[in-house]
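In the lab's daily routine, each protein ends up as an entry in a very long ledger. A line of letters takes care of the sequence, but it says nothing directly about the fold. The fold becomes a row of whole numbers, each drawn from a learned catalogue of backbone shapes. The protein below has been through that process, and both of its lines are reproduced in full:
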Amino acid sequence: MRRPAPAAFASLALLLAALPLLLAAPALAQTAPAGGAVAATGDRAAENAVRQAGDAFGSTIGREVIGIYNQMNVRGFSPIAAGNVRIDGLYFDPVVPPSTRISRTTTIRVGLSALGSPFPAPTGLVDFGFRRPGNQAAASALLAADAWGTTNAEADAVLPVDDRLSLGLGASMRFESGPDATRENSFGGTLIARWNPAPGVTLIPFVSLLHQSLDDHRLTFQTAGEYLPPLLPRRQRFGPDWVNGTGLDANIGVLADWQVAPEWLLRAGLFRSSRNRERQMTNLVRGLVAGRTGTQRVIVDPRLAFASISGEVRLTRQIDEGPRRHQIHFAVRGRSGDRRFGGSDTLELGPVQIDTPSKVPEPLFRFGQQQFDDVKQLTGGIAYEGRWLGVGEVAAGLQWTDYKKRIDLPTGGVQATDDRLLLYNVTLAANITDALVIYAGTVNGLEESGIAPGNAANRNEALPAIRTRQFDAGLRWALTDQIKLVAGVFDITKPYFNLDANNRFDVLGDVVNRGVEASVAGPLTKSLSIVAGGVWLWPKVSGPGVVAGGAIGPRPVGAISQRIEFSADWRPPFAPGLSFDTRLAWRSSETATVSNRVAIPARSIVDLGGRYRFKMAGNNALLRVQISNLFDVEAHDLRGAGAYGPIPGRLAQAYVTFDF
């Protein structure tokens, strides 16, 4: 069994050594945040994903992620890659997701939870909650460490200047040692201002930067044939040492709200999201065989630059008629993105044995001509939302979108893609009883399909926009006043992109994801809360080359037919301030190759943790300790068709949060 070096435990031991002192501090009564926002500055000691998530469909509360879906996987697809992202409810095209300095909560909106979000999209929405500075001075600080040697610190503050202006400040520092001992050192800073220049008017400009001073690039393994690789090494930085880079991520923008009149609200957001990489690499071991040997290839990119300007202006008219509320939304959304990519140098470093780190000296790089692509999209729409208390809801919308993409080809000339499409959405919800609501809806979309992965011949190339559609239906049943069951069925159709016979990432056909999803969440007793969910998928690929047992199989790469998660948080009545939590995650086998001849076996992961809330110098504080992958399960992480890495092993971690 591999044993971490004793030095790796130093930072974690420092936190745990303080445990007796913390347990001696006065315990904090376990109550919900009093009227404050979840994960707000000055109230971070109250963060608890199990108790604060509304369902099991995916939420982020501070540092914790819970649910069957996440930003990269909703109903079998990625809403981030598709461009279905909102920040504070407004359209946002992120090159890099917002940091936790400006967004401390994330919610996946599917089915009934998408009601109330005008202009939904297939695959669901990722909604980043924005951190708005309040009217009272507050601060939070967090110190964290783990057994692998990762340490990080976070600090946030709210500084009211006067009754019209308040500032939000944030800073972070992280020195990471990853599951494969790769290093990532980063420093971040954020400034937010909330200004009320006139009654009913709020302006919130912000800037958030993250500098990566060192970013080792992880190793990905590709086998010599259609089979799984042997179990891969953990906690080994394979190298060579020069396979790393640096970069700068930025999210800059402004939010605006104007209550034009009691029944009219104007909201607007303008954002610029960018990522610059001075040097980026893809580190591969190819032709891996059972004897644990293969050949190493490193693909080195020159300076890469991705940027997108996006935003939305939305005018809402609200009409109240007793138990009925009507809202009419008029919106214009747009984005303009540009990317510089390509020109990479491919280095063949020769035979390797994967348990022996590579020591090849750094060669000279010979970069080629880079490519540029530019995308512009403008969308105008009108939407209606109607709510009749105790009866039901209806939401409908129409949008007209104009999409243009231009790619400069290395051989000269321009590849152009233009599309115009009328988009629609309709959802109906009916209150069958006071406890039971049923719903059904349909929506179509024009979505992005992401970029080609690093192991493709056309790596980093922007893929064309795709037409998509979704039907879904389901129910919400209040089992008690606080426990809700949400269940639904869905049918989503999209073009299917993956590696073709020439190793190009391209359209291979269409994929239909049909499935059932379910969630139960809420407190079973005063001391025990749960969040449980599952999804059952029946994905199917169709197209002229799709044949069972052929080069293109009937299941998409990455398909997982069943996924079940159960999380619980228990607060023992005899120990105020103390709680214990667990997460049980099971997933069925995962399709690993385009031909479907290889699958990663099913696996279960168990996490175990605890919290102790206490007072320190009269301020709220929290000690959080967790062991992830408690039973140290070894398995393969799928990183693309026929590309693998190891999943993280057992990890002990802890952090302390202080509120002021």
Observations:
- The first helix runs from residue 10 to 17.
